[in-house]
Please model this.
Amino acid sequence: MFNPLKSLKSALGRRTYLGVDIGTTSIKIAELTGSGVKPILKNYGVLESYGHLERLNNAIQTSSLKMLDNETAELLEKLVEQLDIRTTDAVASLPAFASFTTLLDVPAMSPQETAQAMEYQARALVPLPVSEVTIDWLPVGDYEDEKGIKHQQIFLISVPNEHIKKYQRIFKTAGLSLRALEIEGLSLARILTTGDLVTTLIVDIGARSTNISIAERGLLKYSAQTDFAGGSLTQSIASSLNISVRRAEVLKKQKGLVGMGGESELSTLMLPFLDVIIGEAKRVKNNYEKNYSPRLPRSEAGKGIVERVILSGGGANLLGIEKYFDEQMKLPTLKAEPFAKISYPPEVEPLIREIGAPFAVALGLGIRQFT
Ligand SMILES: Nc1ncnc2c1ncn2[C@@H]1O[C@H](COP(=O)(O)OP(=O)(O)OP(=O)(O)O)[C@@H](O)[C@H]1O
Ligand SMILES: [Mg+2]
Model:
């Protein structure tokens, strides 16, 4: 059976791909061509659906993935048309909440044996019959223990078939061919940590959900998610100041956490929600460090502890957020710079500080077939 979670290197005759990130409030597309040392950005664009600001159930998708196929396909088709994109080969991302993932420590064995072991593990991991899920596993590390026994670390991903079929339908209706589908943590790990030994906590703050990942050397090692996100910050401003959500959204983007005097009230309103996200990020970090990294050889996995935070998603553009994360997490915190991994036309240069973080997933998807 065709497994869209598997890498599609065999389809590599084609040289241009669309990275398509269907978020809760926007669809983002990055069109990339593989050539030379770095993939080249040919085109990109975003279609934002502001309906969700007024009506909560008018998001493109909700955290139960209840997006309406036809409406989503229409929006996607509209965006492709607006951007005058001719490429039809697409790679898309699934939100973290649409999958079950786990990092396993198993003895070293042949790929065939590993495949069998993973089928078995998936049964234990997923609260659904195995026939209803598609699984994928990626070797993300190996080491030898004190007794000389070789171990491998495997990141196991399992996605309900229902979600995969939904994406296939949407892309087909939009006139695109879905070449591969992956959870968004994989796209973020690839674009933000490839070639980098530093163990990194990636916090992607979207509108409706925040994706928290641990990655190094382009490999995803841990993936978690919380429903507290950019929308929670906007809501807190709107309800406390008794203003419309639309107005609150404008204020949030204008002032961020750095407003002075009377405006500092805004940050006071947002911080409790940001603290929930930070609390979740700390929990993920502690869990990873306690359960997984001590077993890794120090040489391979840096010091075996999380050493840095990278913020992505639209929420990473909140003014002052890096400094606040830095202080609370007690770790150097940077805003994502996914454009560092690709070539792009000079006219895009002035925009990359602002569009980089929200486009991290789309760009990570766009380079998948070239790395
Ligand atoms: N300059 C800014 N300051 C603060 N927040 C911002 C800024 N720009 C965008 N945001 C917030 O980022 C969020 C949208 O981020 P993003 O585009 O990554 O979401 P999404 O991918 O559509 O949603 P999700 O990942 O939850 O499905 C919104 O909550 C928006 O208010
Ligand atoms: Mg997103």
Remarks:
- Confidence is low (pLDDT under 50) at residues 7-11, 52-58, 298-302.
- The chain is about 35% helix and 25% strand.
